[in-house]
Amino acid sequence: MDEKRAIDLYLELIKRVLTNTLFQSEPDPNQDNEFRYVNEFISHYINGPAVSMMPIARFDNLRSCIEDVIARGVPGALIETGVWRGGATIFMRAVLCAHGVTDRTVWVTDSFEGLPTPDAEKFPIEARAHGGTVMRETYHYFAVGIEEVKRNFAAFGLLDDKVQFLKGWFKDTLPNAPTGPLAVMRLDGDYYESTMDSLTNLYDRLSVGGYVIMDDYGEDSWTYCRRATDEFRLARGIDEPMIRVDSKCYYWRRAR
Question: The whole model's pTM is what?
Answer without folding.
Answer: 0.96
